[in-house]
Amino acid sequence: MDEALELGEYLPQSFANLNEQTYLDFLWSALRTNYEAERYEFASLAFHLLYMSFVSFSIWQIRLARPGQFAMAMVGFRSEEEGSLLDCESPFKFYDRLKESQIFRFLKLIGCNNEQVGEFAKFVRRRNKIAHPTGTVFFNDQAAIDEEIASMMKEVRNIEAHMQPVIRELYHRFLRDSADPEEREYTVLGDEITANFVHKNYMSAADIAFCQGFDIDALSGEPLHDAMKDLHDALVALYPAEGDVEEAA
């Protein structure tokens, strides 16, 4: 169960609306209660939905960072599907337009090959078997579901590693767009970071931790570099690393 809880590090810190937060809270509750009650089949379904939510948030970030490439990746879809995907107002709306297995093709935009995409998508096929009446219980004991969770978390970490260039692009864009104090939406740096970076881009704790290691000195030649550094320092202070929190305590 501890490894399942690790997935929370890869899910957003805040959401566009309350319904999204409520939905994720419901899935976590369903996972915990069914796991503790040894109803592992249902616990696996809840964890799968959390996994697919993580995938949808990643695709959302790819669309934000690389809209041109995202549009090109839709070649072969029906024209109405192309328009609806670009107009989706929430990561969860992707599944209104596409089959679950189709969503994984967008991970090719971050360098994943066909074999990797197949590994990411295999859990959908397994979940589909569980979701239909087969007369078979796939997860009869804790060891079985723990093995499944471990396999899924391996792929979560794989996707997150491939997502790092996208997160870097989104962070650089935020620093550049929010550097000018006269143009910022919020005067308080913490509010600007929370609203226009973390919230807007569905950033997770893992994403933020990666941004904390951003080489801000590499932007020394850009206009308003000092203001960018102030934003970066504010991010580090606002979301301290786990070790820093323990040391402060």
Amino-to-carboxy terminus distance: 27 Å
Main sheet overview: none
Low-confidence stretches: 243-249
Structural category is mainly alpha
Mean pLDDT: 85
Order of helices and strands: HHHHHHHHHHHHH
Q: Beta-sheet strand percentage? A: under 5%
C-alpha-based Rg, rounded? 20 Å
Number of strands: 0
Report the principal-axis shape.
globular
Tally of discrete structural domains: 2
List the total number of helices: 13
Percent helix among the residues? Answer: 55-70%
Transmembrane segments: 42-62
Keywords: Membrane, Transmembrane, Transmembrane helix
Could you walk me through the main structural features you see in this protein, from its secondary elements to its overall organization?
- The chain crosses the membrane at residues 42-62.
- The chain has 249 residues and is an all-alpha fold.
- It has two domains: 2-162, no CATH class; 167-248, no CATH class.
- It contains 13 helices and no strands.
- Helix 3 (40-65) runs antiparallel to helix 8 and helix 3 (40-65) runs parallel beside helix 9 (142-177).
- The model is unreliable at 243-249 (pLDDT under 50).
